[in-house]
Amino acid sequence: MAVRLDLGDIQGLFARGYREHRYAQFTVFSIGEAPAGRGLLEWLLPHIATAAPFSGDVALQVAFTASGLRQLGLPDHVVTGFAAEFRQGMTNPNRSRFLGDTEESDPRGWAWGGPDGPPADGLLMLYATGPALLERWQAELRRQLGKAGVTGTTELPARELGDTEPFGFHDGISQPIIAGLPKAARAMRTVPAGEFILGYPNARGQLTGRPLMPASEDPRRLLLPDPTGSGAVDFGRNGTYLVFRQLEQDVEGFWQFMDAATRRPDGSQDSSDRAALAAKMVGRWPSGAPLVKAPDHDTPALADDNDFAYRDDARGLACPIGAHIRRANPRDSLAPGPAASLDASDRHRLLRRARSYGPAGGTGLYFICLAGDLARQFEFVQHTWLNSATFNGLYDDADPLTGSRHPVGATFTVPARPVRRRYRGLPLFVRTRGGAYFFLPGVSAVRYLAQLGT
Ligand code: HEM
Q1: Nearest to 158 by CA among 60, 23, 353
Q2: Residues pairing with 371 in the sheet
Q3: Disulfide: which of 235, 251, 283, 318 matches 295 by Cβ 3.0-4.6 Å?
Q4: What distances in angstroms separate CA 101 from CA 91, 120, 247, 387, 441, one per listed residue?
Q5: pLDDT tens digit string along 7-40?
Q6: pLDDT at 1 over 60
Q7: Could you identify the atom of ligand 1 that is nearest to the CA of residue 325?
């Protein structure tokens, strides 16, 4: 079905990762007084970059948690229309258990967003093409936040965007190709926009649950109508959920583990062995070359290759079943078989928009992804594919890169002939240091929020 996307109302992060905007800073804030928060939105509105063609040097995006929307005066009966996971928030104890945010990743120890700190109500995302420009705009944001009486801000500066994440692997290669966006014209397989943007048909041909409200509550007609023609207005239309998690990476511990695990009996070491083991864990070589196409050594010519499946590697001899990318998107490798598996995998895609940070304040990834359905997409991938020790026939193997190790999951199995190799006692390489579930509204919904109560 051809769907016309309202790109001028959707925030730009849906259409692009702002790769030319190599400098980024994120600001999490508490709203405090509602009128002040709304003043901030008034100022912000003309600056929000949309998904329409864009050539500006600076892009701003804004998102809110459920508490932020309430704080701005969005009535409870509208907030109830959002997904339960969003309303509960990332640090709700049920969500923490489900996401593996326990032990070292327990929200009580987070740097921000945890239960003891100021509430994470809003998120400003600033992207710029140069460092001076970023600094100038960040100073302006600080001024505007101060003027609005906004408190409890946490600034999260990103590292200049490069090709690799902190462990040293090329990242940001595989993304779903969304029907209705330019790249889709050349693609064999696309994912419907409704998987990522509310108000459009999802992979089941349905509209994902969204916050509707009576048209009488929008006398200025700022919001868009419910596309089903119910007569209600749709606060969620052109919006999407935004998962933000600060994932700290123990880069030194990661490579120490690879060294120790690949040391030969005579004590000697071959540096290519440690890279090969780490590549087995990721499913791609440091250059990005996928193991299914380059099983024996890194092949930089395949660095951006995303045109592969796992059907010729059913046992995982090239790319282990438990490798990060094979779990995060199993493509055709799930039971009962390739065609059904490809469809199933497409129901759990994530639009990833990560940036790395560090070394100041630790090193890691601001894992950012967009999803129209938090439970079916982000939470499912995190819980059922990455963190599950029994994924796809394994039994004590959580994701070697990002998985938690409690109480099980500290093994990494590398299928090989004649016998597979098991690495036991994997330490934790990644822990959660902050996070929240945000909603990235359409511009018309931001405009509606800005005038609430006036
Ligand atoms: C610090 C933590 C993480 C690191 C270092 C990391 C690293 C990587 C790398 C190097 C790739 C390969 C590049 C690519 O295919 O684009 C990748 C792919 C991917 N990661 Fe992660 N990742 C992390 C956390 C996560 C989390 C928490 C999720 C989801 C909940 C996730 C989901 C994915 C997905 C969906 C892919 C693409 C798989 C595919 O389509 O083949 N990652 N990651």
Answers
A1: 23
A2: 241
A3: 318
A4: 8, 17, 11, 11, 27
A5: 999 999 999 999 999 999 999 999 988 777 888 9
A6: no
A7: 38
